[in-house]
Amino acid sequence: MLARYVPILTWGRAYTREQFGRDAIAAVIVTIMLIPQSLAYALLAGLPPEVGLYASVLPLVAYAVFGSSTSLAVGPVAVVSLMTAAAVGRITAEGTADYISAAIVLALLSGGILTLMGVLRLGFVANFLSHPVISGFITASGIIIATSQLSGLFGIASHGHAMPELLTSLWDHLWEINPYTLAIGMSSLAGLVWIRRDLARRLVALGVPAATATTVARAGPVVVVLASIVASVVFGLGEKGVALVGDVPQGLPMFVVPNLSVDLVAALLGPAFIISIVGFVESISVAQTLAARKRERIDPDQELIGLGAANIAAAIGSGYPVTGGFARSVVNHDAGAVTPAAGAFTALGIAIATLALTPFLALLPKATLAATIVVAVLSLVDLAILKKALAYSRADFAAVATTLGVTLVFGVELGISLGVAASILIFLYRTSKPHVAVVGRMPGTEHFRNVLRHRVETVPKILSLRVDESLYFANARFLEDCIYEKVTAHPEIKHVVLMCPAVNAIDMSALESLEAINGRLRDMQIDFHLAEIKGPVMDRLKRSDFLQHLTGKVFLSQHAAIAELTQVSDGPRRV
Amino acid sequence: MLARYVPILTWGRAYTREQFGRDAIAAVIVTIMLIPQSLAYALLAGLPPEVGLYASVLPLVAYAVFGSSTSLAVGPVAVVSLMTAAAVGRITAEGTADYISAAIVLALLSGGILTLMGVLRLGFVANFLSHPVISGFITASGIIIATSQLSGLFGIASHGHAMPELLTSLWDHLWEINPYTLAIGMSSLAGLVWIRRDLARRLVALGVPAATATTVARAGPVVVVLASIVASVVFGLGEKGVALVGDVPQGLPMFVVPNLSVDLVAALLGPAFIISIVGFVESISVAQTLAARKRERIDPDQELIGLGAANIAAAIGSGYPVTGGFARSVVNHDAGAVTPAAGAFTALGIAIATLALTPFLALLPKATLAATIVVAVLSLVDLAILKKALAYSRADFAAVATTLGVTLVFGVELGISLGVAASILIFLYRTSKPHVAVVGRMPGTEHFRNVLRHRVETVPKILSLRVDESLYFANARFLEDCIYEKVTAHPEIKHVVLMCPAVNAIDMSALESLEAINGRLRDMQIDFHLAEIKGPVMDRLKRSDFLQHLTGKVFLSQHAAIAELTQVSDGPRRV
């Protein structure tokens, strides 16, 4: 029972020395990659840089205990950092103790929500974030984040978590550009872009194995960080107005009990829920992709518990909301991680770095961190999704465009909320007007097809309709209208046969509609029949008294219906 | 073009003397029935009684011009009156000029919304009120209304539009019961119940034709009203503390321009929308039932315009929101109305009554009107729906119970909103976990059925899955999990065939999931195939590049898939 919720009890017992070796190597590489990212994402979240390091220690240990993916690397990520900034920034000002405290509470709430969802097996809630919504949201977030980092690259002030405010504030401060900051920022950017685009290829050309080259290239940004620190010292950039990371407290924070006021919890509960779902969807997708390569399976509900534990640990360790990151998980996997222990070793690496490296990090220009973020998030921006969605269906395009547009203009929370609402409404709208075909018999066969698409035989006194959708409240009245329209236009109709091979369910509203159709057709002296009803749907219908009232019959096949009804005399009718 | 939106231009031209005769007779009977109801419902809405009469004049004329039902009788109805009281009562106190003015604005907004929905052909929005929600809502409204009228029957004060407040206030004032009011109230109630239950039967026993007896019984309450007025005069009830209707302005109101402030409109827009939808759903259901008896068809979008015009007319004529009433429409139909002109003649009747009868109505005890309402709304209360829903499905029961409970405890607006939200979420939840069956071949046939239900033949290296639901965002990841779970448990699987005869649509999220499944199965060296995809779904898939990436094939039938894949050698695999 306990082992079900704590995977480490299963894999931990069989942990081998060989596994340790592979996990440790992966941990070293991920640690090198994670240090600059942690600092940068904390700044993006409006937090002191060391909070990013804190969020990369305890959460990784917690995930190693409770998580089920052998490849996932958790920690601060770009989109969640932006969402944290948006949520906390609405409550209090950046740079205050309240701000940090609110970020901790946000992690705690997020952890609680994720854990609860995992225990209650509510992972399906994440399904409401449809692919178009997630794509539009991630792309918009990437654009917002990249734009917000321009201030760091230019050495100017900016504020806001949506495009209009960001662009206005950037424009207002544009004359304040610091040339030294700009120089170090642009150099860092160029270096990072070169590492990302060309380094692996160059290494391969030099004879380095492809896998190693890729891994080295992924850890490469640390070189840019080191070079920036050196430049900062050599040119005395701090005195020239270039913003440096500055003094970072050496050592790990004490375990804190967050300051939980009712007002704060109430204000953060909604954002925490959205952050949880977005973080989970991103994480589970990475975890499943990497698991498939090892023919392993990820249990989504256990992942909720793993991420929940990681976020609660983030709160305990003075961090902020975390989730599984795409790039670092791929690095972790490619570097050979075979158990969640790799994450725990990474945590150890970050802890050592926090203790030992902070004096050097104080000299790092913030512009370099901004460049790190810009390079990382530009890979999130995928405007081609708009074109792809448009080609596939207008409904999906509408969902992408709504989410993308609202997120850019009004921010992350409204963007994702309206995106979800739009995709649900679009789905309901589509199923509310299902495809309904009048069908006839293909000559010489027992097959019935759409009269508009095929040359088929029909009987004037029989209206055969096939409805290609489950019948439920949103389309129940549509079906009624559809039938009334046809029978009032054709007074010769004496029988209506509803062919239901594609009806997977009939809810109570649809049942009520079928009863209304039956009663109203009876008033018109028309019999109402059903054909090809699926087993589970028939079981359900038998639980009501509908079949007793049905004026016609239930036929096993459309062919049987037409064969029998064609022979029936429709002379004097019962009253 | 104009005739499309103004049905009177069509039927009005062919209007005959015979039609006039039948419409006029129906109008007389409906007028007699409508006078006490109009007064009573206005009081229920917290408005002076004459407002009910005003709402029964112009709206009927407007509906006669724009409506499409030949039987529908519009005017004040119980549920909409309660909703009006709830909406306006939140803004201002009963008995003030602002209250009346807000009710007029509510009618105007409701009329605007309905007309706009009709012109934009948005009638499908009403589909979101599922049958369980409407049933639960109407039943709860009936209970609330009946309870609220106890104060009128007892002659005590009460307030509130939900049960807790109503019951508390009734309890607080219980010691103030006026025995004369109680006596006249209970006598009226007894008389009305007797008329409803027994009068028609007695008349038939006396040799009156059944149809006439029913119609007389429907108009019977006017006798109780007359008797109460006589009792009021004879016993001088007014001096004994019995609340009378009191002075009603003689004559019709001037056309008023409602006082439209932005704040008022903002506060009333939400309630106006809910009132519009509820009124429309009730009205269209009555109209369709009665139309079917004449083998006529109701155009829902034209009905929106008809009801919209009626509500705008209500605002112009100092009335309040109206809709088609069930009982009076049935009376109208049974009394022989053949065109919407019957409504216009009823309006004339009410106008004459307003001019001529108001001195007599002043003496009518309000307790009699309360009794009228109680008798009318008790027919709305249908607690059996709970049992029926429970027997049919837990999901529908949850929707009924949510709507009923929340409406009773928290009032009409929250009740219907949460009911709609619940029924949408329940639907999404149900479709998010569709029925998925592993299928095998029925021996000696080409049919494939569920391995759990039938003795079928399977091939170990092939996993055949049939999914009984359209694939969309809410169930896309469920399908992924389902497949990964099965293939990781059975390493012998080399092929997965997804059988899609019940898949009516594949949205972009589901497409993304299929791509992920394809890619991840490829990583596991498993081929992914599809079978029995419907034409429209296939057309859609061809608009993406999914089929180019598919590791397996698309088979026309499951049988063809198994036949071919069984023969394939699965020796050395491509990388």
UniProtKB/TrEMBL annotation, chains A, B:
It is found in: Membrane. Keywords: Membrane, Transmembrane, Transmembrane helix. It comes from the Bacteria. Residues 452-565 form the STAS domain. It is a multi-pass membrane protein. The keyword DNA-binding does not apply. The keyword NAD does not apply. The chain crosses the membrane at residues 24-45, 99-120, 132-157, 177-195, 216-237, 264-292, 304-322, 342-362, 369-386, 406-429. NCBIfam families: sulP (TIGR00815). This is Sodium-independent anion transporter.
